[in-house]
Write a structure and sequence with these properties.
The chain is an all-alpha fold. Helix 3 crosses helix 8, helix 4 packs across helix 8 and helix 6 crosses helix 8.
């Protein structure tokens, strides 16, 4: 009988843990509404969760003031800046430098989803982040790491 109780307890614990995603992704997605726009997703986005999700970007990018560029430029302060101009030291591709525009929420969303689709000819070798809420979380994190207004 003890084995059955232990097994039942293990099943309950497993079910509870499965329902607990650390960032409550599904609940936040529901809160954003059916077929949510980027604006709706940004309202439920979480910069702290975005910091964790930025981990997949950290292989090539740093995001601290004065941090060195790696395979990609330091992204500290990138939000609101002109595309292909955030780091004075990084060798951006001509495709990115010549694109024009600003790293705002819409541009970042398209870029994070599919860099080569947003800027054909980019040298960034990253296939993108398919989940729109994950992208919104990363954008919220990038916004939180923007340079203070002068």
């Amino acid at each position: 009988m003890f084995a059955r109780v232990a097994s039942a307890g293990a099943l309950i614990a497993t079910a509870l843990l499965a329902g607990c995603s650390g960032d409550q992704h599904d609940a936040r997605l529901r809160k954003a509404g059916p077929n949510p726009s980027l604006e709706a997703l940004l309202k439920v986005a979480d910069a702290e969760i975005g910091a964790r999700k930025f981990g997949r970007c950290a292989a090539c990018h740093r995001i601290n003031p004065g941090a060195p560029d790696l395979g990609g430029p330091n992204l500290y302060g990138v939000y609101g800046r002109p595309m292909g101009r955030n780091s004075q030291r990084f060798g951006y591709s001509a495709a990115l430098r010549d694109t024009g525009g600003t790293w705002d929420a819409q541009t970042l969303d398209a870029w994070i989803a599919n860099p080569a689709g947003r800027v054909p000819g980019t040298t960034m070798q990253f296939s993108g982040v398919s989940d729109p809420l994950d992208r919104a979380d990363i954008i919220a994190y990038l916004q939180s790491r923007a340079e203070p207004a002068r």
